[in-house]
Amino acid sequence: MVQRIVEAARIQSLDPSAIPRLRMPERATLFAARAARLLQLADASNPIAGYLRLMAALADAQQRVLASVEASMPPRASIELNQRHSMPIIPALTDERDPAWRDVLFMLLDGIEAAGALTPPLAQLVSRLRALDAAALDTQADAILALRFAEIDPAAAPFIAAALQVVWTDLASRIDMNDLPWLDAPGVCPVCGWVPVASIVRVGGAYDGYRYVQCGLCATEWHVVRAKCSNCDSTKGIAYHAMGTGDEADEEKAAKAKGAPLKAESCDECGTYRKIGYQDKAYDFEPYADDLASLTLDLLMGDAGYRRAAPHPWLWPEQKEDDQ
């Protein structure tokens, strides 16, 4: 079957209503598919294979916990106010976060322990997380959601982020996409206002040939025209990079990158990059999992002078003193 690839200029000329604007998270399969992809990517050649297997166990626990979670929706008046002002309707940065997220965290820790993958350092981390009181946990959650890097405990953050993901994915999966407003600010999720992790060019059905970015918190996906920066909305200075490209000529580098299932899309206007995967080249591509598993590409982009548009919620950088 020949896949339909739609050029950016053609997309811009189409009636926007003809392009599916959103893909809401598939509650029954989201985390299970992520866990399966992480295990698939955790081969012997991957330098963080052991960590990917641990995160696969965490994603598997997320799927089981999600089946029993129903977080409290914000008041309807609050949702309607955000709709009227073209703001995310269930914002991540809120004083009304459902305290049940902490129970979700402890259930995830139970799942990790039941998986039998605890090394001594991980067992100590789990014990430390269980010992934190509500205020300390909420302080960490606030720092993660606000991207206040200097306040984030990088070892504990993936597990806290995972619990928040379960809660916001639950909320997003129960929202009618027709209730989501068009936002004034580019690059943020219309459900929760958080940032995307990576993007995917999908195949099949109404989504065929279109690029969607995936929220790192609630997993909602929204359409972004290809060859446009998903961070600053610029169409200038966009370039694509793939593993296996180095100091060769630009023409040769572009030829190598063209057939790669995973690339980094860089923007010279804002100096950032975000990864993009192509489902026609790797059907099982899962934005969150593939982004985490391609750390070598991050190193390549850092050497090229670009910075990530947003961190991966399961891989937080250690903060040096001069960064704080």
From TrEMBL:
<dbReference type="GO" id="GO:0051604">
    <property type="term" value="P:protein maturation"/>
</dbReference>
<dbReference type="GO" id="GO:0008199">
    <property type="term" value="F:ferric iron binding"/>
</dbReference>
<feature type="domain" description="FdhE N-terminal">
    <location>
        <begin position="19"/>
        <end position="180"/>
    </location>
</feature>
<dbReference type="GO" id="GO:0005829">
    <property type="term" value="C:cytosol"/>
</dbReference>
<keyword id="KW-0963">Cytoplasm</keyword>
<dbReference type="InterPro" id="IPR006452">
    <property type="entry name" value="Formate_DH_accessory"/>
</dbReference>
<comment type="function">
    <text>Necessary for formate dehydrogenase activity.</text>
</comment>
<dbReference type="InterPro" id="IPR056796">
    <property type="entry name" value="FdhE_C"/>
</dbReference>
<dbReference type="Pfam" id="PF24860">
    <property type="entry name" value="FdhE_C"/>
</dbReference>
<dbReference type="InterPro" id="IPR056797">
    <property type="entry name" value="FdhE_central"/>
</dbReference>
<feature type="domain" description="FdhE central">
    <location>
        <begin position="188"/>
        <end position="226"/>
    </location>
</feature>
<protein>
    <recommendedName>
        <fullName>Protein FdhE homolog</fullName>
    </recommendedName>
</protein>
<dbReference type="Pfam" id="PF24859">
    <property type="entry name" value="FdhE_central"/>
</dbReference>
<dbReference type="Pfam" id="PF04216">
    <property type="entry name" value="FdhE_N"/>
</dbReference>
<feature type="domain" description="FdhE C-terminal">
    <location>
        <begin position="228"/>
        <end position="315"/>
    </location>
</feature>
<dbReference type="InterPro" id="IPR024064">
    <property type="entry name" value="FdhE-like_sf"/>
</dbReference>
<dbReference type="InterPro" id="IPR056774">
    <property type="entry name" value="FdhE_N"/>
</dbReference>
<comment type="similarity">
    <text>Belongs to the FdhE family.</text>
</comment>
